[in-house]
Amino acid sequence: MGKIKILSLLFCILISNLVASSSAQNCSNYSFSRNAIFATCLSLPVLNSHLHWNYNPANGTVDLAFRHTGSETNQWVAYALNLAGSGMIGAQALVAVTSANGSVRAYTSPVTGYGTSLQPGPLSFDVPELTVERVNGVVVVYATLTLPRGNTSFNHVWQVGPVGTNGALGAHAMDSDNRNSLGVVDFSTTPTGSGDRNTTTSGDRNTTPSPSSPTPSTSTSQSCGNFAFSNNANYATCVSLAVLSSNLHWNYNPANGTVDLAFRHTGSETNQWVAYALNVGGRGMIGAQALVALITANGSVRAYTSPVTSYSTGLQPGGLSFDVPVITAERVNGDVMIYATVVLPSGMTSFNHVWQVGPVSNGAPVIHALGSDNRNSVGQVDFSTGLTSGGGSVGGSRLRRRNTHGVLNAVSWGVMMPMGAMAARYLKVFNVANPAWFYIHVTTQTSAYIVGVAGWVTGLKLGSDSAGVRYDTHRNIGITLFAIATLQVFALLLRPKPDNKYRFYWNIYHHSLGYSIIIMSIINVYEGLDILDPEKKWKNAYTGILISLGVITVISEAFTWYVVLKRKQENKRTHAGTNGANGHA
């Protein structure tokens, strides 16, 4: 029994030594195969990763080693700095690819979209040295970075994913660890220990901009479209919300149905919470899926998600009904910003939204005030069009161009073109209207063409300014309309005289193209209305105009046939009378 106890004690000592050795080499005590020594290290919170570095203030460079343990063959790992954002888009990545035979190669790759396959390419800053090794299942990427603009504090991202049998890099998993592998790092500061992260992750961002970071100016001068974010993020669309000194900025990504947004509340205070929420199934507070930023007494900010299920909610952290891969927050000069990437549910783009501000007591959110502004902080937003209601006005010129494009084309192709055709068909039946009907027809159609071309050009401009946003049916019909209408205009120059033998064929050509233009114009106006998704009254108004033109057409068509048939009968009687007189003679 004594030997068994001694053996058991020795086994326990051996196990504890192994654990201690493993933990001792978790970060700062790790021995690199090339005997490199780094002054600073971080044990990153997810994906079994660590970051080691030496900062060189004299030349603004950093020598770093990114280490991922438990690597496999046919796998890639990446570490990236993001100068302009907080997540994947815009990240400047150092990539290591482990092949099937265990060999490993390193290269740089700028990430420009969610569909990236991490193709090799130069970064926005210099990387004078980049190497990689794989030892005992540990991949280590060594690099020297020339820090951009002398900054030392950056958003950073790290990731792990598979490599296909053909050598192509596949998309990484979307598990919690993969979605939370981001934060902030300052290469000029030193963490207090291997477990004391000098970085923040999604759901807990407490960040202070470095002195070299741009500082936003006051909200009065930068209320919406021209606001300068401390992380240099740029958003295509912004809304100055009507109440509670709040603004909403976003980029819509139709390729993957996500929105990168920033909710900004100005004039914030310590011990305060702010929230922005989408309500997928209702309107107002109940059912809202909230992004929350909580400001503590010392001014630090914490971001998290919270589903609102009742009026007595305490905004407890919890998962939402849709994915939020990224959520962070910061407070700069009294402005609180919540940054988030939202995976839009069920392919939707239009939602009821809610925003709110309230106090914090004992570290927890408590009920907000019930003043007029707090009760009116609801509305609707469409991330694909920029349209809002009940929530303020949209900044920037894109929405104005969309509305201009819609009005020009609806009036020209959708109204003037049918009216011009009606003038040609129904006025010429009156002898007194000849040749006035012709000039009315030509003037109306030419004016419609000119206005329509202006609308077509604004559509081309919208397309070029909205990379990745495609409305193929609307676009293709528009191009076809322009081509056919241009042929019609030039056909006027080739119009044969009434007694020319080719006039019959020209009439067939002219009428066929004309009626085709009218049909396609009406279809495309409705396509455009579906894209703009304005208030229902606008579609009803256009439908009412078409119904009116249709009623006028039916009445005019019946009257035209009545006049034509009556004239034929008169001509027959006249012809018969003439023949009878000739026979009597």
Automatic annotation (TrEMBL):
May act as a catecholamine-responsive trans-membrane electron transporter. PROSITE patterns: CYTOCHROME_B561, DOMON. The chain crosses the membrane at residues 406-424, 436-457, 477-494, 506-526, 541-565. The keyword Nucleotidyltransferase does not apply. Residues 187-206 have a biased composition (Polar residues). Residues 369-565 form the Cytochrome b561 domain. Coiled coil: none annotated. This is Cytochrome b561 and DOMON domain-containing protein. Residues 207-221 have a biased composition (Low complexity). Keywords: Electron transport, Membrane, Metal-binding, Signal, Transmembrane, Transmembrane helix, Transport. It is found in: Membrane. Its main location: membrane. SMART domains: B561. GO terms for cellular component: membrane. It comes from the Eukaryota. One of its GO terms (molecular function) is metal ion binding. It comes from Deinandra increscens subsp. villosa. Residues 180-222 are annotated as: Disordered. Residues 47-161, 244-358 form the DOMON domain. The keyword 4Fe-4S does not apply. It is a multi-pass membrane protein. Its cofactor is heme b.
